[in-house]
Amino acid sequence: MSSQIHKALFWFLLIAVSIVSQFCGRNSAPGIPDFDVVILNGRVIDPESNLDTISNIGIKEGSVQLIAVKDIKGRTSIDARGLVVAPGFIDIHSHGQDPENYKYKIMDGVTTALELEMGTSDVDRWYEEREGKSLINHGVSAGHIPLRMRLMNDPGGFAPVGDAAYRAASDSEIVVLKEEITNGLNRGGLGVGFGMMYTPAASRWEIMEMFRVAAGFKAPCIVHMRYAGLKEPNNAISALEEVISASAITGAPLHVVHITSLGFSDTPRMLQMIKEARSHNVDISVECYPYSATQTTIESAIYDKGWQEILGIDYKDLQWAATGERLNAESFAEYRKTGGMVIAHSIPDEIVRSTIADSIVIIASDGDMKSGKGHPRGVGTFARVLGKYVREDKLISLSEGLRKITLMPAKRLEGIAPMMKNKGRICAGADADITIFDPDQIIDQATYEEPAEYSMGIKYVLVNGIIMVEDGQLDDGIFPGIAIRGDIK
Ligand SMILES: [Zn+2]
């Protein structure tokens, strides 16, 4: 007991000293506001320190400078009474990386969106294209798939449809891919992206060779695994074995994307495998999205012959993203020729819930909206976590829900991008990426039929100290988003 009192006293003193120290050396003239922006009387939640208290926040030059209960003044002030003030949400898996998608993201509370699974074949160009034009912070990995597509002149778009999917790489092509991934990481790529299901002809050796490059940079390998579903021998469990081994053998950190949409009802066993490997010091993280349907391109290798048995679904479980219609054998054949996004209702609801509730699982959207069409995860993932799974279902606590969409993704990337140490938290010195929401109102509104509906309850969003959403209204004429990038060599 007495040690607990001592501990409490220690923390009290530490907090008191840190609050006082924020004022040391500050000599503002009377009448001049101390801060650019102040956020007053909000319930401030920081998942790293477990701070959860009504407080004021002072922001200057893009960073949080003070968290205190005392009165503070700023040139602009936000009244956050009755609202939660949280670190800006970080979407560690966001394919949509254009102005349209950034609007959906920010209106869902996201201040940093990262394309890590697919990645890019040209890291420099990817960042150049978004410089000074982005509402939110953004970043990309060096992508095995787009590099393989470029090398093999694959005519596909989002995913390969030709040689990059179906032809084995020669030894000399593997050497070229290794060099290209090295280039991408040297240019600040945030890891190496893989989608073995989209490149079924990429051998296990080829994948391991790419992991070896990543290991040299301590860069995470962000992986959409080779197989989905329950059917032995080529099921999601064997696919997870492949990448855990590659990580253990090479030493490259591993991040497994959207585990529920590959593992289905085997997901709990796969999470057990990941935890066991972690207990033996294999560096693995994992994410899911909070929905029971998947979405990808119909022309990709995922829908090659045999998909019904592998995925445990049939034509009627497929929904055409552009129109919302359910498919049959004829429309499937037709759309596979033209190509486009298809939604598959294939993940059991209890698996979605148990995975969200698992303490090691990060939540990310895997979203990509095109002209208002797409899977609702691209629009509503984050509000859905906090509205449905935290408030309505009480599946996880508010601080736990926030941890999964702020601190956990930030920490995953700190090794490759030290700038992430200042994101995903609210503390003195943190970047002022802040999302302020009404905990009683927040909810997703995007549905499979009407995906282009902004989430409700996101009241204010600040990106690097700039107020982008004010009283629920987006200002899309300023572009404070910065590049999240590893060290450039
Ligand atoms: Zn994927």
Quick rundown:
The protein is α/β, with parallel strands linked by helices.
Describe the structure.
With 489 residues, the protein is of the alpha/beta class. The chain is 34% helix and 22% strand. It contains 16 helices and 20 strands. The chain has helices at residues 2-21, 99-107, 123-130, 144-151, 163-166, 171-186, 204-216, 236-250, 260-263, 267-279, 307-311, 329-338, 349-357, 377-392, 398-405, 407-413, and strands at 35-46, 51-60, 63-68, 74-79, 84-87, 89-91, 110-120, 137-143, 192-195, 221-224, 254-256, 284-288, 293-297, 318-320, 341-345, 361-363, 434-437, 458-463, 466-470, 473-474. The longest helix has 20 residues, at 2-21. The chain is globular. It starts with a helix and ends in a 15-residue tail after the last strand. Bound molecules: zinc ion. Zinc ion binds next to loops.
Q: What small molecules does the structure contain?
A: zinc ion
Mean pLDDT equals 93
The end-to-end distance, rounded to whole angstroms, is 53 Å
Rg over CA atoms: 23 Å
Number of helices: 16
Q: Choose one word for the global shape.
A: globular
Approximate helicity band: 25-40%
Q: Please give the number of β-strands.
A: 20
Helix-strand makeup class = alpha/beta
Question: Any low-confidence stretches, pLDDT <50, length ≥5?
Answer: 13-28
Largest sheet, if any? 9 strands, mixed
Measured by DSSP, the beta-strand proportion falls in: 15-25%
